[in-house]
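Recap from last week: sequence in, structure out.
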Amino acid sequence: MTRTTLFSFTALTATLSLATPIWAQTSSQNLDSITDEIIVTGSPFNRSVDEAITGVSVLSGDELADRLAGTIGETLKSEPGVSSTFFGAGASRPILRGQGGDRVRVLTNGIGSIDASSASPDHAVAAEPAQAERIEVLRGASLLRYGSSGAGGVVNVIDGRIPDTLPEDGTDGAIRFGVSSVDEGREIAASVNQAFGNLVLHLDGTFKETEDYDIPGFAESQAFRDAEEAEHEEEHEDEDHDEDEHHDEEEHEEAFGTLENSATETKSITGGLSYVGDNGFFGVSIHRFESDYGVPGGHEHGEVDDHEDEDHEDEDHEDEDHDEHDHEAEEGDVTIGLKQTRIDVNGRANVDGFFEAVQVFGGYADYEHTEFEGPGVIGTVFANEGFELRGEVIQREQNGWRGAYGVQMRQREFSAVGEEAFVAPTKTKQYGFYSFQEKQIGDLHLEGAVRYERTDQIVTESGAGVRFNAFSASAGGDLHLTDALRFGGTVFRTERAPTTEELFSNGPHLATSQFELGDDSLGLETATGVEAAIRHREAGHFVTLNLFYTDYDDYVFEQATGLEEDGLDVFQFTAEDAKFHGFELQGGLDVAQFGAFDIKADSLVEYVRAKTDSGNLPRIPPLSILTGVEAESDRLSLRAELDYSAEQNKVSVNEIPTEDYALTNFFVTWKPDLGEQPIRVSIALLNAFDVEARQHTSFLKDLVPLQGRNIRFSVGTRF
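Predicted structure tokens:
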């Protein structure tokens, strides 16, 4: 542990220790607002966080405003069991309990993001956290409603683009401005709902721009530089390489203090229209999302031979919008220009009889992103056009028994054209049928769910393909042992069909510095597991412990072969048995009252261990601790916290261990009394001691550190 890390950890631990003797003196405030919030993701039956059997969290309100980042992964990484892929400031996808990629479904209002983010960590998620009203995270076996591609969990970004209620007084809206020091960032986001009788018009838009962000030291980690130096000396041990060493020092000086090619620009606009009546609603929206961002860390696409594409030099494919981007990349820097146009529908009708409601969700998107090797120089174009539809009927409660039945259909046409076309154009068709059932017997609540899913994976050009039939089931219960103590548990067996990338890859994947080989003989991936949750909640405090264990048959992952192709290490998708286990322990306490302030403390500890029969899996998050103290009054809120990540030395082949770090953050929120107009002014000091931090779950952890010290200011209002 570094000196700064040790100081930060000791300082905050001492603060919490001083508070310990008065923890019993709880204030009149309680923590109901944390656990009583209604969740809509998971089962079709809306329930509160406290009623959920297994791990679930909701990020909303002031907490969402404090955690808001440019990407969905970074926004959520302080939630229980969540880390991120962090591929620089422009791309970061959530990792839940060590699971990422296709095993984590990222949804927008209950429908998949319909992008290419699960195919590669440098591909951004086409979801805008700046417009989110709330973000729900479900860990465990919540896939039965959303499909096998959510086997590791589900993240649902709810932004209200299709209004389902009439606004009070006919109009409501919000606007927020923000700036940040670490990247000279500036952001504006606004939304409005306007009623015209039973019709509600929704409009929103966002714009965010950042420069290359500041880092505490070298972009490359010390371990990486040591390894490079050792390799260099071995290759040139008989040569006089003083000039080489001088050149290396100059390169390191250039990569010191600022992370080159990490600038971003993101903008979106949405229009929606709903009819809201006494017995339900129905609405449609259209959304345009664009993002231009640098890919730091030295992609070096140009070094791969024999994979040039004639389209690479085709001027007809030049993107004028990208050329006009203020953050024009230097020759050789890789940037990505992403565009998505999306149409959504959503509705609910309340009916009489055996069923109480019918719900429909749908989305269609046309997505494309272009990887530029320099200004106007196209390397690879990724495209994904697809749709998803889901219909549900909800059974009316009878003698404590409720049920829901649903059907889902998804289609995806994916292609990559250019030198990084590591997978041929493919089409995925998926059909699913599912049912949820629940029964209340006194203090015992029982749940069960089943799903059948058929998936066809087809190579477009040849028409060759494979079909998978998957069956999944889960059952669980929740028991009130006392008014304050609850125990819940779930057992599940799920099956996941392999993706087209896992089946058909055959080419250089330069974002991960790998030559990837798929295996079209892969079968279903089967997970059998158990999850338990213990909750204790009384006025003024709560403690929640989630325990999980999952045993995989034929877990699909990439394994190093020891071979090289086009200067890249060859990785083969293969299947082995694997085991994941771990926990999340979370607690909060109303400590005392000090004048007008309520003093509170909270802490989160999380851990996951994952390995296959042949060894450790790569990029598994280490033990982490997030702990903080907060003083809150009607108008002012003050918070100090420590975000600690332990060393990760349980690594796979060719993976470098990651050092521990501790980030100290401070938040101040002021809500001035300006009559009926609510104003929120916030200032945050993040990574206050400018600590070098590297996220083990990132492919680029040894080339791309997290941001240095950052002062972030925002002001917003609702009307």
